[in-house]
Amino acid sequence: MAKKRVILLADRTNDSIASISTSLETHLSEVVEFVGSDLQTPCDAAIAIGGDGTLIHYGPLLAKANIPLIGVNSGRLGFLATFDAASLIEHQNVVFSDAATVISVLLLEISVDGGKPMVAMNEAMIAAGHPFRILEFDLSINGIDAPTLRGDGMIVSTPIGSTAHNVSVGGPIVDPTSKVIVFTPVATHSLAVRPVILANDASIKITLRKANEGTSLIIDGQVKCHIKEGTQITAKEGSDSLQIVLNPSNTYWNTLVDKLHWGAPPELIEKNDSL
Question: Of 11, 15, 44, 52, which one is the catalytic site residue?
Fold first, then answer.
């Protein structure tokens, strides 16, 4: 079997990541030919080592280059990284073969006032900002106007990003292979407003009617621009999708239970009678 050509994306100034990189280069040498770290290099896959922030950074770039992503966790949570170094070494004969399981996940394109689209792997969020007064939005979906909403912000999420900021404000958890867009208002001033799951061909247009001095558009945790009254933001499915290679010994639902403790009962803290 011919070796797979793989680029290795790793911050070797970090001692832990450098150690993982060296280990992978040594133990995968029989099935992998490492060909540097340039995304322009012809290759079969990319190994990205780091936490979720690393994968979110490289995800859109790899999607654009049509390179499958193999995420190796070196961070604290590592929800998006399906492997650690040991499991990738263990399953190397499957992962670097035609038997590998690869999923395709949806990304978002976000535009401000018709400008150049920005890509979101997890989500785009409108955040109230200083002085934290309530915001007002006009919303339309596929050209159909919805009621004006009032609240602290809005999140438009991908399925794979549904377990990030979206879930922390009460949005739904969505299977990452689903072709949908998740729309979640944040702390709306109404009991009748709930998150909505839209078809992947939906086009969402949000126009700010009231904003604060610090109101911002945040994409994948990074402030992209400050926005003001009258700003129009559109969100739709991106033209590129990201391929992710899965760990044969794990599933998405295992990850929900193990890393996000889905369905776990609250832990009881024993009272210390000496206090």
Answer: 52
pLDDT in tens, 228-253: 999 999 999 999 999 999 999 988 88
SS3 64: helix
Residue that is written with structure tokens 């086009």 in the block: 203
End-to-end Cα, the chain, rounded Å: 65
Give the tens place of pLDDT for each residue, 21-43: 999 999 999 999 999 999 999 99
Pair of tokens at residue 215: 């109101």
Q: Confirm whether pTM is higher than 0.85.
A: yes
DSSP string of 179-196, one letter each residue: -EEEEEEES-S-TT---E
Alpha-carbon distance of 68 to 83, in angstroms, equals 14
Residue 88, by phi and psi: left (phi above 0), alpha (psi -120 to 50) or beta?
Answer: alpha
The token pair that represents 177 in the structure block: 């292979």
Instruction: Based on the residue annotation, tell me whether 52 is a catalytic residue of this protein.
Output: yes
Sheet holding 180-186, edge to edge: 196-199, 180-186, 153-157, 123-127, 216-219, 222-226
Q: Which two tokens stand for residue 148?
A: 């004006």
Structure tokens at 155: 């999140």
Q: 3-state DSSP call for residue 138?
A: strand
19, containing H or E segment:
helix 15-27
Helix (H) or strand (E) holding 243: strand 232-245
Burial tier of 248 (Cβ tally within 10 Å: 0-12, 13-18, 19+): middle
Structural domains of the chain, with CATH: 4-101+246-259 (3.40.50.10330), 108-239 (2.60.200.30)
β-sheet bridge partners, residue 73: 50
Give 195's Cβ-side CA count (13 Å radius).
20
